[in-house]
Structure formats: C-alpha cells, structure tokens
Design goal:
The complex is a heterodimer of chains A (397) and B (265).
Chain A lengths: L3 E10 L2 E2 L1 H10 L5 E2 L10 E3 L19 H10 L4 H12 L4 E6 L5 H9 L14 H5 L3 H9 L6 E4 L5 H14 L5 E8 L3 H9 L20 E2 L1 E9 L9 E10 L12 H14 L8 E3 L6 H15 L4 E3 L2 H4 L6 H15 L1 E2 L15 E2 L4 E2 L4 E8 L3 E9 L2
Parallel strand pairs in A: 4-8, 5-6, 5-7, 11-12, 11-16, 12-14
Antiparallel strand pairs in A: 1-2, 1-9, 1-10, 3-4, 7-9, 10-17, 13-15, 16-17
Chain B lengths: L2 E12 L2 E2 L1 H9 L19 H6 L2 H16 L8 E5 L5 H11 L8 H6 L4 H10 L5 E5 L4 H16 L3 E7 L6 H4 L6 E8 L8 E8 L9 H9 L6 H8 L4 E8 L2 E9 L2
Parallel strand pairs in B: 3-4, 3-5
Antiparallel strand pairs in B: 1-2, 1-6, 1-7, 5-6, 7-9, 8-9
Helix pairs in contact in B: 1-10, 3-6
Classes of the chains: A alpha/beta (397), B alpha+beta (265).
Amino acid sequence: MNPLLLKSFTASSCIGVGCSAIAASLARGRSGLVPCGFETVCLETYIGEVAGVDAQTLPASLQSYDCRNNRLAELALRQDGFLATVADAATRWGRDRLGVFIGTSTSGILQTELAYRERAPDTGELPPEFHYGTTHNSFSVADYVRRRCGLTGPAAAVSCACASSAKVFASAQRMIEAGLIDAAVVGGVDSLCLTTLYGFHSLQLTSRLPCRPFDRSRDGISIGEAAAFVLLERVPRAADEDAVLLLGVGESSDAHHISAPHPEGLGARLAMQAALTSAALEPAQIDYINLHGTATPSNDRSESQAVTSVFGQALPCSSTKGATGHTLGAAGALEAVICAISLQAELLPGGTNTRDVDPQLSAYYLTENRRYPAQRLLSNSFGFGGANCSLIFGLAR
Amino acid sequence: MSALAYVDGIGVLGPGLAGWPDTAACLTGANAYAPAATILPMPHLLPPAERRRTGRVVKLALAVALETVAHADLNPGATASVFSSSGGDGHNCHEICAALAEPGRVISPTRFSNSVHNAAAGYWSIATGAMAPSNVLCAFDASFAAGLLEALAQVAAERRSVLMIAYDTEYPAPLHAKRPIPDAFAIGLLLSAAHSRATLASLKASLTDAPAETLREPRLELLRTSIPAARGLPLLRRLALAEGGETVLDYLGDTRVRVAVASCR
C-alpha cells in the first residue's frame, strides 16, 4: 500500500486524557485499573474507567446523541488540538472529501440497558426520552464524530468486536487509495456498559485481579474504555522527520469459533503476514509488537504461537492492556496511538502488571520499558467472530 | 472520483421476495409484488451445534450470501466479504437488556457471544472456512450504501472479489417502537475487479447530492423506505433491466450515491 500520514492523533483512556498524559503513564509503567465501581455493577473485577466522562457535555445541536459513549468521544476529540487539525483538513480538501470510520463494539448500549429498567409497568414501553438511533446504534458514534467535525463525506461504524478500530485504518486506506476521499478521521470509541461487564463474566473471561497479559498466572481480561482518533491523509513530499506513518494493514478471518481464537493462531499469523506484505517489509524490519495480549489463557497462547511463527522468539513485544484494560472496540485505535507515542518517544512500553512471564509462551515479552529508537512497530487486534487485523506504523525519517 | 466494479452474482431475500429471479421479475413489473412474511431457511451450512445457536439475522445473511456466491458460480468462502447491517440482532439484544434489568443480571454466554455485530460474518467464515478478510459495518439507515462503498473500495484498492451483504431484521417490542423495522430483508452482491464469464453488469459509483430514485410500485417503495437494506432496491431494479441505466441511492442525508449500471449480458 501507499503509506499514509498520521496527520494528528489523540487518545483518552484510564491512563490519561490526551497523548501527553498517556505518554507519561507509559513512561512510569502506571496501570489505570481499579476495582469495579461502575454504575450499579456488582462484580469482583477490575476496570479501566476514564475520568470525567459523565461531566462532559455535547454541543447543544447534538443533544440527541447524549450518552456515555458519545461523551467519551467528545472528551477525546477535544484533546491534542485534534478538532482544529480536522477543521484545517476540511478546508484544504473539502468537507465532502473526508471520510469518518469509527470502530465500536457496543456504542451507546448502556442507554438501552438503563431504558429497560424504566419500562412502563403496564405497557412495557421504553421511556420517551430514550433515542435508540443516536445513542445505542453502532453508527451513533461515527455519526456524532462526523457531525461534530462538520464533515459530509462517506462514513460508517466498523463493528468487528475487538478488531473494530484496527480495521477502520484498512477501510480508510482503501477509500483513499480508490480516490473516493482524500483524508479520513478514523478511531475507536467503546465505553463501559453492563453488557460487556456481565457478558465477559458469563464467559468466565474476566479476571478478579488487574489483568496480567502473558503472565503465568493470567486468568482473564480487565475491561476498560477508551476513545482514540487519528487523522489520516496521503504523505506529503516533505514530511517531518518524527511524523508517524501507517505503512501496512493486514486482515484475516479465523473460520474457527465465534468466541475462541484459533488454537495455533493461524488467523493471527495470516493477518500479520498480510500486513508485512502490504508494507513490503520483511519480519526482521519490525522492531516491536504491541500485542493484542488480552490476558486470557487461550488468547495469549494462540497469539504467542502466531508471533513466533512469523517473527521468531527474539522480537520484543508486550501488551499495554495491563495498563489500559481491554478497551474492546477502541483497542485497535488506542494501541495505534500508543504505537505512535512509542515511536516518537523512542520508548518500547513494558507490559504493566506482568511479573512472571509464562515460560510456555515463547514470544519475547517485555516487562520493563526499554529506550529504543524503533523505526517500525506492529500492532495486533483480534476479536470475537474470528476477526483479525494487524497494522504497521513507522517513522517518516 | 468514481469506483468501478463488475457484478458477478446477486442474492435477495425479503417479505414476499424469495431470491433474485423472483425479485427481478417484481422490480421490472413482469410479476406483481405480493408482500408476505419473510421465510428464512435453516443454515444447513453450519455445524448442528452452531445452527441451533444462531438467530434470524445470521440465517438471513447466510441464506443471501449462499444465493449470491452460487449465482456467481463460486465456492462459498472463496472471496473477501463485507457485511453491513443497520443494527444487528434485535431479538438477542432485547434478551440481554431484559436480563440486565432483572436483579440477578444473569446473561447467557451464548447470547453474549452472538451479540457482536459481526456474528453473521463470523458464522459465514466458520461455515465456509473462509479465512479472507471480512469487514462488518453499521451506518444506521445508510447501511446499504455504506456497505456498497466499502466493497467497491476493496475491489478498486485490492483488486479482489468481494461478497457484499446488506441485511436487516426486525426488532421485537419494546425496541420495535423505537426502531420499527417490519421484517427481515437482505441483498447480496458479488463484486469483482475484472470482467469474467460470470459478469452480469458493471457498476460505477460516485457521491452526489441528487435526490434518491424511488420505486413506482407503492408496496416496493414502502419496503425500500421501511428497511435500510432495501434502500438498495433501485440498484437491483437497474440490474434487472436489460438496458441498465443510472440510479441514485439514499446514503447519509444529502450525501447520496450515484450508480451507473451497464449490462454485460
């Protein structure tokens, strides 16, 4: 593929609102996971909650979009000068020449969960103030971002479970390549809700402790929430030296099971190989992998096999989910931004919370930060339904 | 700028519409359209355990995907795929939200696994062994055109064949009052980068603010406006007419999609 420029990027998660806060947390190896006190949830688990989401307000013209998920989107859009850069791009390219592709798994479903508690006792009707389309529907957040940025080009929510906001990079790249758009706002937004907290609990996939990716004692995920956005456009002739580029995208399907990964990580391997092919790179040209690394026993085992089958056992890799929690549909975009921060800060983040790397996993897992001027990083995102996506980012220099 | 692709296969299932030949005859006026509840076949493609677990949305998407690839004379799972649905499985969603409103909050792990928007794409991959990329979109009422544009961009940028399925099922009460989709409806298109023996027509799509084409037959027009996936019916009508022509499809408000159709038969 022709590389694309990350013209602007921002992220907000439990380890920080905005890139500099996230970079500071990564540099300190700080985890944002805390015992679950979300809403009325009564589960013994840790979560990664973003501070200040409920206090966020949406513009008056977009009040019908008001829900936790869109408040989180709004909070993140306001960081790092992102909205101003998008406005500038809209002026340069035209409002109809910018696409919007946002990954989400549950969007504003919390609004429906709350509305179901308020059903009319006699008729069972949902309360009149509940708006399905602008809150719960998966497209709500993409529609919100498009309207908030004043854009009129193509838009969609990509909803492939936990691979959603990695796949938005592929959608945008193809649409730019096909000439339908000149630039795109891509990103991922997923917020805490009862469906995922109780749902992953029902599958016995949540840990009672902060999640410990690749640890011998790992026993499940910690659910987090995040919003992350990137403005993608074609690489100009003279890009800044520390500009971050999207170099490759690779996707595959597991064809195995709706909620369990392929045991040998075959689909994951295909996605990583496809990303290398798309970037015209050899495995040895990758300096680090930001793993999907959810901390379930089977996910980490299958990903470790896939990674070592492509890259061998010497490539440093880690999962930042010990710090951020698993932010589900937002994970791909959040970890893309973390990759961009890692490249610019010349810091490979060690996996927080992991003390005792599982000797059965042969991938070279970093438990401490490493100062290293990496040129190219790969990020993995895999989801239910067997959706896999790998992205490669690199510095322009 | 416009994106070009060849149509190698078509599938349709909806209220009173059992497959592409039947639908084509209704759209050209050769047959009268008689609305009737959509009949969804069992997904025999799936292993029995999975078959029992799947809801209407998966049955619908798999049935139309199968018809589309068969029409293109391809093996199921031979291509990449794009699934686009305006909202996914409303019945499953209702059961989960109802359970979460009860004091115990016990939700079924199967229901939770099936609640992902990409369930149909996942089951299609499992059923056919397809390991090619699959993307799954939602654009509310714009989901048909969003899926079409994603598929066309894949054909243009990757030079690969793409199976595109736009599909919607009804929501049960009380969600139905907030999202009144009346029944199940889906359209499938097999799009390719190159002309082949299977090619039926070529498509060229671009964005426009021109008004969307409506259907003259009032009951088909009602179908078009009441189910998001049926916003693609004017395109199917052009594909059914031997002479082809141009149509405009609803998309995002004033942003619509113009599609020029040229018959290759």
